[in-house]
Amino acid sequence: MSQENPEASMPQSDSKAQRLGFVDNLAATAKHVSSSVNSHGGQIRKEDYWSILLVPLTSVGLLIAVLSAGWARMAVSTLALAALLYYILARIGVMRGLTERQAVLVWHIIMATFLMGITFAFVYLEAVNHFR
């Protein structure tokens, strides 16, 4: 990929592709991401293997947290949060290779995901307190 034109590898935009309906847009995006992962997903730095291993370990840790009580739940949840934070921060440098517009879009996706996680936690806690 050329360093002079980082947008050279981006798909050409046409007005029809930009005006897809909600479901068609989701399907087209899933297909594009799947294709990208299949073609570039195996290109992983040696340093990233540890953070990749943290994802399933975090899932197991969260399962243990659900089954635990008291301080054990808080400790396991905190470790899971730290592992996920490390996973994100280990990959945040990829944004340097993006155009300014792409970087802003990725930043908005990261912030929306963070806010969705907080909202989910509040809804979950409210549901647990309501049905207990």
Strand content: under 5%
Total number of β-strand segments?
A: 0
- Count of individual helical segments: 5
Rg calculated over all Cα atoms = 19 Å
What level of helicity do the residues show? over 70%
The low-pLDDT segments are 1-10
The CA-CA distance between the termini, in Å, is 56 Å
Structural class estimated from helices and strands: mainly alpha
- Globally, the shape reads globular
Mean pLDDT across residues: 78
- Biggest sheet character: none
Written as H for each helix and E for each strand, in order along the chain, the element string is HHHHH
Structure description:
This protein is mostly helical and 132 residues long. Among the domains are: 47-96; 98-132. Helix content is 73%, strand content 0%. It has 5 helices and no strands. It has helices at residues 15-18, 22-40, 48-67, 70-91, 100-131. The chain is globular and about 45 Å long. The protein starts with 14 loop residues before the first helix and ends with a helix. Mean pLDDT is 78; it is low at 1-10.
Which features characterize this protein?
132 residues; mainly alpha; globular; disordered N terminus
Topology (SSEs and partners):
Elements: H1 15-18, H2 22-40, H3 48-67, H4 70-91, H5 100-131
Helix pairs in contact: 3-4
In brief:
Helices cover 73% and strands 0% of the residues. With 132 residues, the protein is mainly alpha-helical. The longest helix has 32 residues, at 100-131.
